[in-house]
Design goal:
Distance between the termini: 19 Å
Order of helices and strands: EHEHEEHHHHHH
Number of domains: 2
CATH architecture of the largest domain: Up-down Bundle
Bound molecules: glutathione
CATH topology of the largest domain: Glutathione S-transferase Yfyf (Class Pi), Chain A, domain 2
Amino acid sequence: MITLYHAPNSRSIRVYATLEELGLQYEVKQLKFPEDLRSDAYLKINPLARVPALADGDVTLFESGAIVQYLLARYGNGRLEPATESAEFPVYLQWFHCAEATFLPPVSDLIQHTMVLPEGERVPGVIPWSQNRIYANLDVLETALGDREFLAGSTFSAADIMMAYTLHLVKLVQLFNAEDHPNIGSWLEKVESRPAWKVAVGG
Ligand SMILES: N[C@@H](CCC(=O)N[C@@H](CS)C(=O)NCC(=O)O)C(=O)O
């Protein structure tokens, strides 16, 4: 049985949505954020004290993108990713990784320095810096989406799952406005209307 270690609104939404999209059998262990992440039992699963983590038989894994790729490789049978030899594949890889490696860090910095860190540790200059980074990234995504339906082309893929979570956080900090970025707005509506996404975000 696959076990997902999950906390609401966290990056485990990406894994949750992937498990749902693939129709796999799994259980969800709900963790209270952040206290459960520091328990001895959980540190054995993820010594970094972060979510998500996944257990599948002898395998335990952390890092949301790695877990999504693991699930696709083991259980995907070609679903949620373009064929390796297709023109869409490199584009898919780019957006899949860009979601966590490039787009998410300024959102995370903004959250840390406005909500999470004790007030005395917050650096006010990080706020405009992060906001500018986020807006610049959104502009790039807006142009890249153009009139394509999904990030890798006409077919929904795991790159959409990875990036939709990053946009979930951008919405949470109220920095997304569909009037400024209509292509992102209509793409996001398509992802958010999928039953798997609704289960993952509601879980
Ligand atoms: N790059 C990692 C980041 C994991 C991560 O930082 N998760 C956050 C929740 S979204 C967390 O667990 N934070 C714990 C903390 O800050 O104490 C991934 O994509 O899985």
